[in-house]
Amino acid sequence: MEGEIYTYKATRFRWESMRILKVSDGIAHIRIYKKTFFEPKLSKFKKDSWVIGHLPIAIESLDISTLKYVGRLPIEEDELEGYRIWEEEADAGVFS
Description:
Strand order of the largest sheet: 4-3-2-1-5
Order of helices and strands: EEEEEH
Shape: globular
Number of domains: 1
Distance between the termini: 19 Å
Strand content: 35-45%
């Protein structure tokens, strides 16, 4: 699951993307990207174009039926900076 990229419909013809950075204790730590696509493809994905760097969300809140799997890229250590801060703050909360 970690490193997986999903897209979801933003408008009738545009897709937005998110990536799972880490999964722990029923929480998916995701990153939301600002680039939108007419057709979601892994080759168009750019790791540096994020708008929300870290969003902890309860896994059961992710509606898999609305997400389209695009592919998987390995997670680099610097991508986990927001997760590390969240972890140091004694698990600072989760969206559900």
